[in-house]
């Protein structure tokens, strides 16, 4: 992961593969291809943590997968953001802003769906801990989320 962090981006929430909520029980907000194409060339595929804001809502902790998700053998690169908050309803077509602050792990394949879900839950737990650190908490209130 050579890309310099933090990395800030935003875009419209679009329909993804439909697996996050239904199959994994871990809903994700997906960015359109245009946002993915604008990622720095040196941003490695993997799992990241940071902050996210939907429209004019609150800023919440998030964990994000960037890549091809080997378990599902994706043909398209995706940016799937799991916001660590329970929303009452879907927010497709909303504006999602994210501040990507740190890297958790590389993309990898899993032998079962249960193994994948367990790993995602470990990622979420690690993201929560890292985002409580003072150097990461300060980004929750940065100007990016208020503009």
UniProtKB/TrEMBL annotation:
<dbReference type="InterPro" id="IPR015865">
    <property type="entry name" value="Riboflavin_kinase_bac/euk"/>
</dbReference>
<keyword id="KW-0067">ATP-binding</keyword>
<protein>
    <recommendedName>
        <fullName>riboflavin kinase</fullName>
        <ecNumber>2.7.1.26</ecNumber>
    </recommendedName>
</protein>
<dbReference type="Pfam" id="PF01687">
    <property type="entry name" value="Flavokinase"/>
</dbReference>
<keyword id="KW-0547">Nucleotide-binding</keyword>
<dbReference type="InterPro" id="IPR023465">
    <property type="entry name" value="Riboflavin_kinase_dom_sf"/>
</dbReference>
<keyword id="KW-0285">Flavoprotein</keyword>
<keyword id="KW-0808">Transferase</keyword>
<feature type="domain" description="Riboflavin kinase">
    <location>
        <begin position="2"/>
        <end position="132"/>
    </location>
</feature>
<comment type="pathway">
    <text>Cofactor biosynthesis; FMN biosynthesis; FMN from riboflavin (ATP route): step 1/1.</text>
</comment>
<keyword id="KW-0288">FMN</keyword>
<dbReference type="InterPro" id="IPR023468">
    <property type="entry name" value="Riboflavin_kinase"/>
</dbReference>
């Amino acid at each position: 992961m050579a890309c310099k962090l933090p990395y800030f981006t935003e875009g419209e929430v679009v329909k993804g593969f439909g697996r996050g909520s239904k199959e994994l029980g871990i809903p994700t907000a997906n960015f359109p291809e245009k946002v993915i194409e604008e990622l720095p060339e040196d941003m490695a595929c993997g799992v990241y943590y940071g902050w996210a804001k939907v429209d004019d809502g609150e800023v919440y902790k998030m964990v994000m997968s960037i890549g091809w998700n080997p378990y599902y053998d994706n043909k398209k690169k995706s940016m799937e953001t799991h916001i660590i908050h329970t929303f009452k309803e879907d927010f497709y077509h909303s504006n999602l802003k994210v501040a990507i602050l740190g890297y958790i792990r590389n993309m990898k394949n899993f032998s079962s769906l249960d193994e994948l879900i367990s790993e995602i839950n470990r990622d979420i737990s690690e993201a929560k801990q890292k985002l409580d650190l003072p150097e990461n908490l300060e980004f929750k209130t940065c100007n990016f989320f208020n503009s």
